[in-house]
Write the structure tokens for this entry.
Amino acid sequence: MIKVDKNSPIKIRVVNLHKSFGNKEVLRGVQLEVRQGESMVVIGGSGSGKTVLIKCIIGLIRPDKGEIYVDGVEITALNERRMNEVRKRFGMLFQGGALFDSLKVWENVGFGLRRQARLSEEEIRRIASEKLKLLGLQNIEDLMPAELSGGMKKRVSLARAIAIEPEILLYDEPTTGIDPVMADAINGLIVQMKERLSVTSIAITHDMKSAYKIGDRIAMLYQGEIIEVGTPDEIKDSRNPIVQQFIQGRSEGPIQLV
Amino acid sequence: MNPFRWIGNYTMRFVEEAGRIVVLFAQTLSWIFRPPLQGREIMKQMEEVGVRSFPVVIITAGFTGMVLALQSFTGFKRFGAETMVGTVVALSVTRELGPVLTGLMVSGRVGSAMAAELGTMRVTEQIDALYTLATNPIKYLIVPRFLAATIMLPILVIFADVIGILGGYLVSVLILGTNPTLYIRRTWNFLEFNDLYSGLLKAACFGMILATISCYHGFFTQGGAEGVGRATTKAVVISSLTILISNYFITAALF
């Protein structure tokens, strides 16, 4: 595995990020730095604001306060057109796949290509098949998303995310809702993506097995703040009782169940 | 709760929502003229709004024309004006019933589908996925539906007008024993281009109304499957009401 050294440039920097919905404060000053080529995993309970954080980074949710820098460019204040340029450098895997129901598998995978590059239909189809093959999927190009199993949907969705060859990949709970064997396969694919495509990635999850496998570093989000960041080993040895309770999955401890 | 507070609350919510619908309408208009054209999506929606709604609209218009002939015949017979049935049917259908009934039927059939489809896309994060693929969902999802409804409604109304008048003719001639030549002459002589044109203009407005309102409710759906259900109901009820209310004002303006 390529080791990300401490001198790699910072790809994504989140500074003092705040976001509230109504009077519910979801993010309360999140600080996070992700280096070029690094795989960062953000762990945290349901409702801890993980999804909101990742959606702020790709510009789906506008934060109330704070800044997000991608390669040193502040993105929270960009207009729609400039933000679109930034988004072209991102790929995102959604929790349920979020495949377009009305389009065939290959059209889903090629969606970003059709919109961003002047390619012929055959060319798009060929690239789509290539990406699907990379994820171990063959001869499903003409199926509709409704005909796929949960694990296949995730892989097709991952193929769609990597089709435009992004520099940054965001994974929203990549192993939620699929069986453990498939989950392990998805983890393997994520590690492969990182090594082969040398992308920077942020994954959010509450699956510790997955976090240890795919993360160069792990950050724990608790009550709207990052309370600890470290390598998987450092996290395992953390002396913070909240982190310990979470990674061991115990119901007794300082974490309040909502 | 204090009744004044209740009224105030409702008014605020109404004004806020109306404002958001107008904003979406304006955004939709501004996206129409930006590339890409999206011919494929527009054709798909035109088929959905126009071709698939055809049977419903035809049946509605046909029976409305038929019942109109029966009813006006009964009324007009009382003062010996049976021969005017053709005129009444033609004017009512082209000016009023054609566009309004078509608008209502299409709201029920297509508006609900638009809200349910966009609502499902919202709750399954497909709309977010569009943004991440650098595609504006208003351009990709709402513009084709808006254009399809605005173009297809007047076309449906032309068919509704013809079938409605034909329905009235058949009942008058075959059942009520009216002279066919007289009926046709009564229909043609009093029908002005203005009647047809005002009906078609109304239909285009109703198309815009139902597409905007239905897409709005679908696009901003919250709360899972239940939210999709709520959005669908609201889409149909609010677009139908808005069509009926705006119908009066459009008519008054064209009068």
